[in-house]
User: Fold this.
Amino acid sequence: KTSPLSLDDDDTSSSPGQIIQSHGIKRATMLLLVYLFLIAIVSSIRTTTSFSPHRGTNRLFLDTAVQSEWEALLPIGIFHGITTNPTLLERAGLECTVPAVQALTQKALCMIGCDEFMCQAWGGTPEDMYNVGMQLSEVDRERVVIKVPVTFEGTKAASKLIDSGVRVCLTACYSSNQAIIAAGLGAEYLAPYLGRMTDAEKKGMEECRRMQNIADGLGSSTRILVASIRDVSSMGDLMAHGMDTFTFSPEIARLLFTESLTKTAAADFEAAAKRCGGE
Assistant:
């Protein structure tokens, strides 16, 4: 007779005690392998990301295609990534072609301090924008975000890109009502142009706050990525209202370090250290 404790045909010649012992060893071995696998995953995550648990949910991006600025400013450690668009490529003297942008993307993602890279798709039709976006995102689908204007045609392209597993930022946003589009579409980011809205005599600060309220009200995880920032104080005011995602120029980044009282205090500390034997 086959023992009721048997789990396969090979166990029929074994005693119940041997069967229990054998399956106990198999179970322990399997649990050990699972444990080691989980440890390997955790170790990999810890060594491949620059995420700091003290940073919270904020994401700050450096808005430039000038590589010397990346090299100068990414090491300060406050940035999550880099944002670009065709206008910034032109200002940097770079080509706006798929191979050129792919090469630029690869350079950026190899730099410490760049966890994400945003580049913009272009084209006269939704299909053209979709095809360009697919090619640009091929470099790294997990770390590349494709920007698409929040127009009727752009939103069609964005919808197809999202369905294809591409991360998307709807850009060139000038109205808080466009947050409805981004949330409804499920775009990861929506980029309003704060400075340009103000230039157009819109209430830019109020529009940005309302976008965040719309996204929150719809239960959307879309991040409001505030762009076209002209001064640090405006950014600080929006942060004080709970907004946590911004992209700004190298000029604005340097303005964060211009507090004269801090410079004076730092100089006093250095002087005291030297008086006490510091070199």
Summary: The longest helix spans residues 16-48. The mean pLDDT is 90. The longest strand covers residues 167-173. The beta strands are 59-63, 81-83, 116-120, 144-149, 167-173, 189-192, 223-224, 245-248.
